[in-house]
Amino acid sequence: MRAVVQRVTKSKVTVGQEIAGSIKKGLVVLLGIGKEDTANDIEYLTNKIVNLRVFEDENGKMNLSVLDINGELLVVSQFTLFGDCRKGNRPSFISAAELDEANRMYMEFVNHIRQNYPINVEEGVFQASMLLEIHNDGPVTILLDSRKTF
Questions:
Q1: Selected catalytic residue, list 6, 46, 55, 78
Q2: All structural domains of the chain
Q3: pLDDT, tens digit (0-9, with 9 covering 90-100), for 22-73
Q4: Is 78 a catalytic site residue?
Q5: List of long-range contacts for 17-20, beta carbons under 8 Å, 24+ apart
C-alpha cells in the first residue's frame, strides 16, 4: 500500500460539478492499493498517517500530528501510485490490485480511520475522474509505503 501525503490548508475533490469531499487544515492522502496488500498494511499505514508529525508546534518545529491539531483527512484512491516506469515510457500497473479488491481495501482503509481515530475523513469517488484542488502547505509532501520499499 502506498500513499502520497500532503499537508494542506484546504483541499477538495470534485466529480463533474459535484464536490465529493472537502477539508480545511489537514492531510490529503493519495492512496494506492497493491495486489499483495492486506489488513496489516491498512493498520500500519493508517497509524503512520494519523500520527505523522508534520505540523508545526509553538516553536515552529514539525512536531504535531493531524490528531494533535484537530485536522482533517481527504483520502483519494490513486492506482497510478503503482505505475512502474522502469521499462519504456508507458507505465505498467501489474502490481496494482484488481478493481474490486482495490475498492474493498480503499473502503476498509477509510473505515479503519473513522472507527479508530477521532478525526473527520472525507473521500474521493473510487474509479471516477476527479479534479483535486490541493493547497499544499509548506509545501510538505511525504511518500509512504507499507512494505517500506522507500
A1: 78
A2: 2-145 (3.50.80.10)
A3: 999 999 999 999 999 999 999 999 999 999 999 999 999 999 999 999 999 9
A4: yes
A5: 20/122, 20/123, 20/124, 20/125, 20/128, 20/130
